[in-house]
Design a protein that fits this description.
There is one protein chain. By secondary structure, the protein is of the alpha+beta class. Strands 1, 2, 3, 4, 5, 6 and 7 form a 7-stranded mixed beta sheet that branches.
Amino acid sequence: FAVPATQTGLGSDRVSVVPLIRTERGTFLGIRISDLPAAEKHFGKSSMPSLPVFTLPKGLLTPSEIEKFVIDGIATKHGARVLSYQELGGAYSPSPGIIPGLLQPVAVEIDVNSLDSCNYHWVPLGALLNRVDDIKDGQLLTGLFRASHALDLVQ
């Protein structure tokens, strides 16, 4: 297994965040562009749309501790204020046998008044659903589908 170095204080579990905003024009999902060197080998480019992911510190056990850690991280690292936080189903292992930790997808509603300082790219949720064949990132696909089900946009 590939595990974080013990001196980092990080555990092996992570949270994948589906940032959402609701406007009069619809629901938008916030993506970030990640530089993933392994993606270049498979897809010919290293930049890929993805969701924000937070690696949880060791010892963070309760759901309320995890929620606070994620909300604080979104504010600090991405400049956005969270209005609401919701788990999107159960945690899963995105890379069984390679990475030991679990990934918990969550949806957060972002305050539209904090968008000036937010570094996400906002894409209409429906447009992403219409282009799922173009999405290469598994965490983005999982988060997109789970959020869409939670919002009753797909069945």
